[in-house]
TrEMBL record, chains A, B, C, D:
<protein>
    <submittedName>
        <fullName>TetR family transcriptional regulator</fullName>
    </submittedName>
</protein>
<dbReference type="InterPro" id="IPR036271">
    <property type="entry name" value="Tet_transcr_reg_TetR-rel_C_sf"/>
</dbReference>
<dbReference type="Pfam" id="PF08359">
    <property type="entry name" value="TetR_C_4"/>
</dbReference>
<dbReference type="GO" id="GO:0003677">
    <property type="term" value="F:DNA binding"/>
</dbReference>
<dbReference type="InterPro" id="IPR001647">
    <property type="entry name" value="HTH_TetR"/>
</dbReference>
<dbReference type="InterPro" id="IPR050624">
    <property type="entry name" value="HTH-type_Tx_Regulator"/>
</dbReference>
<feature type="DNA-binding region" description="H-T-H motif">
    <location>
        <begin position="28"/>
        <end position="47"/>
    </location>
</feature>
<feature type="domain" description="HTH tetR-type">
    <location>
        <begin position="5"/>
        <end position="65"/>
    </location>
</feature>
<keyword id="KW-0238">DNA-binding</keyword>
<dbReference type="Pfam" id="PF00440">
    <property type="entry name" value="TetR_N"/>
</dbReference>
<dbReference type="InterPro" id="IPR009057">
    <property type="entry name" value="Homeodomain-like_sf"/>
</dbReference>
<dbReference type="InterPro" id="IPR013570">
    <property type="entry name" value="Tscrpt_reg_YsiA_C"/>
</dbReference>
<keyword id="KW-0678">Repressor</keyword>
DNA sequence: GATGAATGAGTCTTCATTCAT
DNA sequence: TATGAATGAAGACTCATTCAT
């Protein structure tokens, strides 16, 4: 299993840095290799081609994150609390890794349709986490039984994504993690007055 | 003013078709020229470079749309009603133009950071429309005065965008315009039960 | 028709020189372009890819030669005389074009199987010329009716080819055209004593 | 002497198979090593470089064959008979080793000029065998004293080679050994009628 | 002797843009 | 205005060879 070799993760991490610092289209294989401290050809001992590096970046970084999320929402707590945890974790992950934030929110979106389809496959795991919370919340009566889960999921994911992207585009000038609570409240209560 | 010449819009429309049918990276200048029925060199009489075509595509198509939105929210009605009109208009615009939907939701996002910054400039007009509605709604008491306008705007825009993107990715299999009302209700009330 | 453009033949001729002087594998597209006095990209306005240049070299040079041979054997004369003309023409063509001789006898044989299959297709025209002579000779009684045309053709072509290759490998130190007559006699009478 | 070690021939035989099955340019050192059941690096304990393997293939296979030919023509018999034996042996050798036939007639010809010069050195031994027969034949009066030995040798070798190549290119669909006699007769008597 | 992970040089092709007509 | 032939820069990937174990 190649993934256990240290060079595998070494190249993955180098790719994140190279893409964040140079942009997606300027992150040539030779730059990634240099950043990783290996020869160009070594890349191809661990990855099939350049696209394979990029998919693996997403798989390793987001795949692990989604696993963590599943643990996070497995325990006790209301659906509303769990939603907060997910948003907070998401915001924290990207707050703590400047390079990763740039790569996932800006650079990797420049990839071609084929690559983005594979990225979407990975993201499905995230969407399922949101779905679980929603269904659980409907079960506990926290959310109305009339809630359209698909639409609600799109709202939650779209809001989180847009919030992070805006933050990255504003050069991360403000604290993102602090926004988790107000974002969650907004998602739970919407914009309307509760009278 | 070049923009008044007939070939200007001819090339813009050709670009939308060429990008939608071939994908962003396969929509070479020569393909756009062929689609527009002009010579490659003619493109450069109307546009500074390829990027300028793409920005102009967005400017013309979304710019006009934003103007229309401003008219739409200038008249009478509550903020809540106006939000519905915006969502409905947005969904209708893209439902009616298959090519434009693919281009704005999928293809143009593959452009480089620089181009996307310029696209974001244009989108600011859209975000201002949302802000106006939110501020108006706070004024009329429809929305709580504690509402964080920036976050609310990110939720509204993020949700609309995610909903449209999901619809395009699902090959537009279901009716998008019908979703305007439930999406608006979700944005107003959130996921939570109103007790 | 691209072939009427002057640059088409300009590139073909440049390819012959570049291959002859640098060897097949060292004749990079950029070298051929430089030799032809055009930009690298211009090559691709006239040829699909590098292989297409090489096939076209053979087509243009040998294709024309085979046409000439067909005229040569169409007129009057015995089959034996016509065979001499063919050998002489072949020897003269390559004697007069040093570069072409190297390319056809040595360099083009290094190409991959696919390319050589296409070269063989072109050569079939040559083999048909030999067949025509043989069949005519059998008709006139110059050759025995028991002659196996396929084997005889292989002898004739193999002998001519081997003679030219040996001459090129010996750096063309002796006169090739002079050998046409003794080679023809050998092919007609074989090694054996006629008693 | 490396050549006496069992792995030496093991690698030679693996090279013949690897080249025959994959083609000259697709027969990477690693494929040859795998076929031979040794590690890549082991190859370099027995051969200086890749070219050295290929030369050795020819040396071992054709070198041995030429020795056998020399024995074959040392004994009694006329020159004409000996020529038949040579052709028959040659045809039989390649008929019996499908892989070897492909390698010598098609694949090894794709090698670069340098390698082919070395191959030609080995082939000189073969050409000397033919020369011996021709000179002997002139001595016995079987061949005319006016025979140009160099040209006759080129005819004999060229004919044999072309016959074998055609047979390989036709996927060895017919029996090659049977052709030895008619080929010999053709070489002795030529195409002409003997009256 | 044997291994196999690591190296790094080398090239074809695309396509945005120009400019002579 | 309009044309379209010509330009030329730029990058992913392969594979023979080495050398520490």
């Amino acid at each position: 299993m190649k993934k256990n070799k240290p060079k595998y993760m070494q190249i993955i991490d180098a790719a994140v840095i190279a893409i964040a610092e140079n942009g997606y289209h300027q992150a040539q294989v030779s730059k990634i290799a240099k950043q990783a401290g290996v020869a160009d050809g070594t890349i191809y001992l661990y990855f099939k081609n350049k696209e394979d590096i990029l998919i693996s970046v997403f798989e390793e970084k987001m795949g692990n994150f989604i696993e963590k999320l599943n643990e996070l929402i497995a325990g006790n707590g209301t659906a509303v609390e769990k939603l907060l945890r997910v948003i907070e974790s998401h915001f924290r992950l990207l707050s703590e890794d400047h390079h990763l934030a740039i790569v996932t929110q800006l650079e990797l979106r420049q990839s071609n349709k084929e690559l983005r389809l594979k990225i979407n496959d990975i993201l499905k795991g995230y969407l399922q986490v949101i779905d679980k919370i929603l269904i659980e919340g409907i079960g506990t009566g926290e959310f109305p039984s009339s809630l359209d889960v698909r639409l609600a999921r799109q709202m939650i994911f779209g809001t989180i994504d847009e919030t992070v992207t805006t933050w990255v585009m504003n050069e991360e000038k403000y604290d993102l993690v602090t926004l988790a609570l107000p974002v969650q409240r907004l998602l739970i209560n919407g914009c309307g007055n509760v009278e």
